Amino acid sequence: MIYVVGLGPGDPGSISRSAWELLTKPNVTVVLRTSRHGTVAALREAGVNFSTCDALYTRESDFAAVYRRIADTVLALPGEVVYAVPGSPLVAEATVPLIRRGAEACARSIRILPAISSLEAVCGELELDPTRGLVALDALEDSLSLNPQWGTLITQVFDRFTASELKLKLLLVYPPEHCVSVVRAAGQAAAVRVDVALAELDHREFTHEDTVYIPPCQDAHHLGSAMEAFARLMDILQGEQGCPWDREQTHLSLRPYLIEEAYEVLEAIDNDDSEALAEELGDLLLQVVFHAHIAHRENRFDLVDCIEAISRKLIRRHPHVFDGLQVSGADEVLANWQLIKQGEREARAQEGLLAGIPKGLPALAEAYKLQHKAKQVGFDWPNIDGAWSKLWEELRELEGAIDSHKQAEIAGEAGDALFSLVNVCRFLKVEPETALREASRRFKHRFDEVARLAREQGLNPAACGLEALDKLWDEVKRRGF
Length: 481
Known about the structure:
With about 475 residues, the chain is an alpha/beta fold. The chain has a 5-stranded parallel β-sheet with strand order 3-2-4-1-5, with helices on both faces. The chain has a 5-stranded mixed β-sheet with strand order 6-7-10-8-9, with helices on one face. The mean pLDDT is about 90. It folds into 4 domains: about 1-115, Cobalt-precorrin-4 Transmethylase, domain 1, CATH 3.40.1010.10; about 120-215, Tetrapyrrole methylase, C-terminal domain (Methyltransferase, Cobalt-precorrin-4 Transmethylase, Domain 2), CATH 3.30.950.10; about 225-315, Helix Hairpins; about 435-480. The protein has 19 helices and 10 strands. The protein starts with a strand and ends with a helix. Helices cover about 55% and strands about 10% of the residues. The longest helix is centred in the C-terminal third of the chain and has 25 residues, at about 430-455.
């Protein structure tokens, strides 16, 4: 039988009666994970004969290896074994799950006795009620799941290096001036609490008896908190005491705003304006949250459903990241993406090889996507030569339609010519919507400069005629506009 007991926070009086009886029981093998604990002197005074695992901490390269060696050592001992750990065996004790799994594998009996952990002692020193919202984390974890709306206790801050690493992680979320507490020797007569600004957390020495507490923070830079606050804001705006205009909106009434905000995002990207891009992405996010809230009000879906759906889709469409699939590069990733999408469409029993393209796309983007989908099923020119020939053929047909003076025929042939030009762009790896937008931006910039030069020369741009404007246009191009 292996007994796993907790020694409590450090005061011998915190050891439970059951644990003490096991530790002082005759003919048992007692192993302490570490002798660096406030109860060790009391155990010696009581005549407890024990060994420790302290030496293993200097022999192994990392904590994971240390914990495995400790578990192996305990499991290898015969007879009745009492393995004692600081605090509670069920709180932040990495060796206990390893011993439990090992005991089950070799059909050995194991009993774990809960105890007071250092967390309860820290809460006592800080006068915290954990039911008000408290999370406990390990400083040695690679990433910390922080929620600044709750208080956070962080264990394993045993030296200045660990404190410095922890501080850098916390500063990604909390402001530097946020006050945090360091509690040492909680639950013992020598307990000490020090309050410092987060930026100064690592300006002091740390020991294995230290725990860091971060109080809730309303000014934190945290995605989860920001999204929750944003969602609550939308609840207020669409509530009974909110905005009458917001409450009247529907998916259809918001449609123009969604399209408008998307184009303003593109404009910010085209202008390489980071400040404007952040603002416009926020406006676009508003539309997403707005639509989700309307759907929630109609008992159809909510924002969580949207987030979970796209998360599942990203995992499903990235098997090379989440499922061990080997790929040779970006081209194979795209090919797999299309195959997965095709399978999803078949599962939904969609009809048509070119199904799945949004009807509201701009015409150039729609043409580009249609041609790309056609390529996926083999309907494509083998190289750009065929696309070029088709473009010239369509341009000649457009010339013939112009000679016929039939407007409907001219419109049809002009559309065919544009569609063929999009195909040429695709072979050239040029996204036509972006290319045309950039051309329009250059035209506007140059024409504004033409108007400015005309006014400098005392000319009225609206009345000086094509010849004068054309000369000014050439001058603007020579200047590099």
